[in-house]
Amino acid sequence: MLKPFEVYVQARSLACFQPGLTGAEWAALQASAEQARDRLAGHTFWNVNSTARGGGVAEMLPRMLAYARGAGVDTRWMVVQGTPAFFRITKRLHHALHGSRGDGSPLGPAERACYDEVLRDNAEELLVLVRPGDVVLLHDPQTAGLAPTLAAAGARVVWRCHIGCDTPEEEVARAWAFLAPGLTAARLAIFSRAAYVPPLLADRSVVIPPSIDIFAVKNQPMAPEVANAILGHTGLVALAPEAPEPVFTRTDGVPAHVSRGADIIRLARRPPPTHRWWCRSPAGTR
């Protein structure tokens, strides 16, 4: 019997944003928080994904939930559990939504039965917790099959797809065909780019570009020479002989040291370090 587990997130006050906002912007943020509290009064906003650590969703949720809880919204995070076979199938779906064959394994009736069985086990526990009128935000292919059961129990189900492919192709269509039965029960689907929206969800989808918490570790100010040192120690660029220590500050304020490298396949030598690095987000901003 596979049971989902809860990840507990501490509330964080929205007051941390006030110094960087104008008076009008701060008032608008407070008004939005009040509206969210009113609309969700007596209900819970659930986030459901497949891992508590590793990956973009697990990195994003603690920050977003902390702010939502700080705004007075009852929001909770559940993580479904699965078998190795289940996660092989969902990895295959992940690759397919990117337009890749991945390991090339089938997505047929046997895979469908395995996928449904794992989510049926997880749904039993979720049905004990989720009440009619609650909002459930399901993340990515691993949770899409939960939508019919939760919707039948009276929850307002939304599915968030964090991945996709700009151009329709055979593998993408194969993934959507596999996920379609579950997604029929979702009231709304959220995508990062309009190009990712499939025809089956075109009438009930919205686009929300990826965003970065301005207080996240990855977004903290950093001297160019320290940034180059981190890139050098991870193996992305050549490490300068005079490079400083590759250090950063963790969320709890404690200094930390970058020690692990990246597995990289190269056709040429590492590029030299530079003092001008541009980072492009998935939404296309710099």
Could you explain the architecture of this structure?
The chain has 286 residues and is α/β, with parallel strands linked by helices. The chain is 36% helix and 13% strand. The chain contains eight helices and nine strands. The protein has helices at 23-39, 56-70, 84-97, 109-129, 141-144, 147-152, 170-183, 224-234; strands spanning 5-7, 45-49, 75-79, 135-139, 156-161, 188-191, 205-207, 247-249, 255-257. The strands form two sheets. The chain has a seven-stranded mixed beta sheet with strand order 1-3-2-4-5-6-7. Strands 8-9 form a two-stranded antiparallel sheet. Helix 2 (56-70) links the parallel strand 2 and strand 3. Helix 3 packs across helix 4 (109-129). Mean pLDDT is 91; it is low at 277-286.
List its salient traits.
seven-stranded mixed sheet; 8 helices; 9 strands
What's the topology here?
Layout: E1 5-7, H1 23-39, E2 45-49, H2 56-70, E3 75-79, H3 84-97, H4 109-129, E4 135-139, H5 141-144, H6 147-152, E5 156-161, H7 170-183, E6 188-191, E7 205-207, H8 224-234, E8 247-249, E9 255-257
Parallel strand pairs: 2-3, 2-4, 4-5, 5-6, 6-7
Antiparallel strand pairs: 1-3, 8-9
Gist?
With 286 residues, this protein is of the alpha/beta class. It has helices at 23-39, 56-70, 84-97, 109-129, 141-144, 147-152, 170-183, 224-234, and strands at residues 5-7, 45-49, 75-79, 135-139, 156-161, 188-191, 205-207, 247-249, 255-257. 24% of the residues are buried.
